[in-house]
UniProtKB/TrEMBL annotation, chain A:
Pfam families: BPD_transp_1 (PF00528). Its main location: membrane. InterPro entries: ABC_transporter_permease, MetI-like, MetI-like_sf. GO terms for cellular component: plasma membrane. It is a multi-pass membrane protein. It comes from Streptomyces zinciresistens K42. Residues 1-26 are annotated as: Disordered. Keywords: Cell membrane, Membrane, Transmembrane, Transmembrane helix, Transport. It comes from the Bacteria. GO terms for biological process: transmembrane transport. This is Sugar ABC transporter permease protein. It is found in: Cell membrane.
UniProtKB/TrEMBL annotation, chain B:
It is a multi-pass membrane protein. This is Sugar ABC transporter permease protein. GO terms for cellular component: plasma membrane. Pfam families: BPD_transp_1. Keywords: Cell membrane, Membrane, Transmembrane, Transmembrane helix, Transport. It comes from Streptomyces zinciresistens K42. Its main location: membrane. InterPro entries: MetI-like, MetI-like_sf. PROSITE patterns: ABC_TM1.
C-alpha cells in the first residue's frame, strides 16, 4: 500500500510535484489538497458518465413508477402504488415472473451442468480439444439478434432445418411448431439459449479447472480415491467460486433476457414467451404507458438487487476466505 | 481393463463430435442455404445446393445498405471502446494508486453497476436522450454503452494496475515524473495487454448490442448490424435464401474478430468474472 501516492510524510516524496516543497505544515496541506484533487479529478469523467447515464435513469424509473405518465413532460399524476397493484394482478407479468423462474431453473439444472461436463471433458488431453473449445465458445460472440433470426428460420414449422432433419430420420412426430406453439416455445427458447451460452460457462469452468493444483488430485489418487471421488471431493469444491460466479451471471442474464425473445417471438404466441424486459418494452415504447412500464423496471431492479445482495451475503462472501476454507465446507 | 480404458477414450470423442455437430450444423446450414435459390431451399433444404448460386451473397455485398450498417457498427464500436477505455483507465489509476477518502465506497458504487440489467434504465435513458436531441445520433448509443461498460472495464484495469510494482512508481518519481507522467509514460505502456483485453470486450459488446440501437435509431440511417438483420428478415421474410445469406454475412465480422482476438476475449471474460 505504501506504493500508492499517499499524502503523508512516509511516502511524501512519492506524492506531489517533483520539487517537493519544504515540509512545513502549509506545504503538507497544499500537497494533500493537490493529491486529493488529482485522485478525484481522475474519477470525474467516469463518475459523471456513470451518474448521468446509469444511476440517474435508474433512480428516475423508481420515481416514475408511482405516476400515471405517458412519457412527455414531467410525471404529475401521482397514483401511489397503483402501478404495482395492477402489475401484480396482470397475468402477463405474473407469467413473466414464472417464465423467468423456469429459465433460471432450467439453466441451473441443465445448461450449467452440461457446460461443466464439457469443461471436464475438454480439460483432458484429447485430440482436437482446442478446436472444440473454440467451436463451443464461438456462438457467444454472435449477437443475440443474429442468433435469434437464425434459429427462427431453423425452427420454422415444416420448412425449417429442425423439422426436415427429424423427418429425414423418421421422427416427424418430434417435430412441430417450435416457436409458434405455446406449449413448446419456452423449451425452444431454452434450447437456443443453451446453444449460445453454454460455451461461455464452459470457458469459465475451464479457467477454474486449470487453477486446481495437480498435486491435490494426485494426492487424492495416492490416497485411493477413484476418478469420481476425486472430482466430487477435490475438483468440485475448488471450482466452487467459479461455479457461483457462473450461476450469478446466468440468473442475471435470465432476469434481463430481451434480444433473443424479441427477434424470435416478440413474446408470443399469446404472451407465452414474454419476459419482463419484453413487457417493459411493450408498455413503455409501444403503448406509452411509461409509468406502468417503469413499475416493471423497478421490479426487475428489485429482483436483481435482492438476488445480488443475498448472493453476495450468503454465497460470494465465502470465496474471500480462500480455497482452503471452501475445500472444507464446499461439498455440503 | 484394457477394454474398459479403450471404451473410455472413445466415448469422449463421440460426445464431443455430437455436440460439435450441433454447434456447427446451424451455421453450416445458413452458409449452404445462402447459396441456394429460395424455391430450391424448400425442395432441397438439407443437402448441398444443386447449383451454387452466389447471387444472394453478391447482391447483398453489392448494395450500399449492408456496408452502411457495417460502417455504423464499426464507428459505434470504436467510439464506445475509445471512450470507455480512456475514462476507465483514469478511474482505475486513481483507484489503484491513490488513497483518498471514500475510495472504497466509490468503487462499490461502480461494481454495483455490474448487477443491474440495462433494461431497468432503458426508459428514462431514452427520454433523457430524446431531450438532449441524441436520438438518431451515434452518440446516443456510444455514450450509454460506454457508461454501462465502465464497471467491468474499471474492475479489470484496477486489478492490473495494482499488480505493477511500487518500485517502478518510486523510480519514476525520482526521475521527476508526477502522477500523471507516471500514468502516461509508465503505467499505460505496461498495461497494454490489459488495455487490449478490455478493448476487445468493449468492441464485442458494442457490436452485438441490439436493445439500445433499436431504441435510439428510429430511422435506418444509423442502424447497426443486429438491428439491420432483424429488419431484413421482416422485409424479405418470404425470401429465405436471401435472409440466410444476409445472416452469414452479418456473422462474418464477429467470427473473424473472434478468430483474431480469441485470447483477449476469453482472458477478459474469465478475468472479469473471477475478479468481479
Amino acid at each position: 500500500m505504501n506504493s500508492t501516492f499517499l499524502p503523508d510524510e512516509r511516502t511524501g516524496p512519492a506524492t506531489g510535484p517533483p520539487p517537493a516543497p519544504p515540509a512545513g505544515a502549509r506545504g503538507r496541506t497544499r500537497r494533500r489538497a493537490l493529491h486529493w484533487l488529482t485522485a478525484v479529478g481522475l474519477q470525474l469523467p467516469a463518475l459523471v458518465l456513470f451518474l448521468v447515464l446509469v444511476l440517474l435513469p435508474m433512480l428516475f424509473a423508481l420515481y416514475a413508477a408511482f405516476f400515471r405518465w405517458g412519457g412527455f413532460g414531467m410525471p404529475s399524476d401521482y397514483t401511489g402504488g397503483d402501478n404495482f397493484t395492477r402489475l401484480f394482478q396482470d397475468p402477463v407479468f405474473l407469467g413473466d415472473l414464472w417464465r423467468c423462474l423456469v429459465l433460471v431453473v432450467l439453466s441451473l439444472a441443465v445448461q450449467l451442468p452440461f457446460a461443466l461436463a464439457m469443461a471436464v471433458l475438454l480439460n483432458q488431453r484429447l485430440r482436437g480439444r482446442a478446436v472444440y473449445r473454440m467451436l463451443f465458445f464461438a456462438p457467444y460472440v454472435l449477437s443475440e439478434a443474429v442468433t435469434g433470426v437464425l434459429f427462427a428460420m431453423i425452427f420454422a414449422p415444416g420448412d425449417g432445418l429442425a423439422d426436415q432433419l427429424l423427418g429425414a430420420v423418421g421422427l416427424e412426430g418430434l417435430g412441430g411448431e417450435w416457436f409458434a406453439d405455446p406449449s413448446t416455445v419456452m423449451a425452444t427458447l431454452f434450447l437456443v439459449m443453451t446453444w449460445k451460452y453454454f460455451g461461455f460457462h464452459m470457458m469459465l469452468y475451464l479457467a477454474g479447472l486449470q487453477s486446481v493444483p495437480r498435486e491435490l488430485t494426485e494426492a487424492a489418487l495416492i490416497d485411493g480415491a477413484d476418478a469420481r471421488q476425486r472430482f466430487r471431493h477435490v475438483t468440485l469444491p475448488l471450482l466452487a467460486p467459479t461455479l457461483r460466479i457462473s450461476v450469478f451471471l446466468s440468473v442475471i442474464g435470465s432476469i434481463q433476457l430481451f434480444d433473443l425473445v424479441w427477434v424470435t417471438t416478440a413474446g408470443g404466441p399469446d404472451h407465452r414467451s414474454e419476459t419482463m424486459a419484453v413487457t417493459l418494452f411493450q408498455y413503455g415504447f409501444k403503448r406509452y404507458q411509461v409509468g406502468y412500464a417503469s413499475a416493471v423496471s423497478v421490479v426487475m431492479f428489485g429482483l436483481s438487487l435482492v438476488f445480488a445482495l443475498a448472493y453476495q451475503r450468503f454465497v460470494l462472501r465465502r470465496d474471500l476466505e480462500g480455497a482452503t476454507t471452501t475445500m472444507r465446507g464446499g461439498t455440503r | 481393463m484394457t477394454a474398459r480404458s479403450g471404451r473410455r477414450t472413445l466415448s469422449p470423442h463421440l460426445i464431443l463430435a455430437v455436440v460439435g455437430a450441433v454447434m456447427v450444423v446451424p451455421l453450416l446450414y445458413a452458409v449452404l442455404s445462402g447459396f441456394k435459390a429460395t424455391d430450391e431451399l424448400s425442395r432441397n433444404p438439407v443437402g448441398l445446393p444443386r447449383s451454387w448460386m452466389s447471387g444472394n451473397y453478391t447482391g447483398i455485398l453489392g448494395s450500399g445498405d449492408f456496408w452502411r450498417l457495417i460502417g455504423n457498427s464499426t464507428l459505434i464500436a470504436i467510439g464506445t471502446t475509445v471512450l470507455v477505455v480512456a475514462v476507465s483507465a483514469l478511474s482505475a489509476f486513481s483507484f489503484a494508486r491513490f488513497a483518498f477518502r471514500g475510495r472504497e465506497a466509490l468503487f462499490t458504487l461502480f461494481t454495483m453497476g455490474l448487477m443491474f440489467p440495462f433494461a431497468v434504465a432503458a426508459l428514462p435513458l431514452f427520454l433523457l436522450l430524446r431531450s438532449l436531441g441524441l436520438l438518431d445520433n451515434p452518440l446516443g448509443v456510444i455514450l450509454p454503452q460506454a457508461a454501462f461498460g465502465l464497471p467491468m472495464t474499471i474492475i479489470i484495469l484496477r486489478g492490473f494496475f495494482r499488480e505493477i510494482p511500487g518500485e517502478l512508481e518510486e523510480a519514476a518519481t525520482l526521475d521527476g515524473c508526477g502522477p500523471l507522467g507516471f500514468f502516461w509514460r509508465v503505467l499505460l505502456p505496461m498495461a497494454r495487454p490489459a488495455l487490449g483485453t478490455v478493448s476487445v470486450l468493449a468492441v464485442v459488446t458494442s457490436w452485438n448490442n441490439f436493445f439500445l440501437p433499436l431504441l435510439v435509431f428510429t430511422d435506418s440511417t444509423w442502424w447497426t448490424i443486429p438491428v439491420g438483420v432483424q429488419q431484413f428478415q421482416g422485409q424479405y421474410s418470404a425470401d429465405y435464401a436471401r435472409v440466410f445469406a444476409y445472416l452469414v454475412l452479418a456473422m462474418v465480422p464477429a467470427l473473424a474478430f473472434y478468430a483474431v482476438a480469441e485470447r483477449q476475449l476469453v482472458g477478459g471474460l474469465t478475468a472479469g468474472a473471477t475478479k468481479g
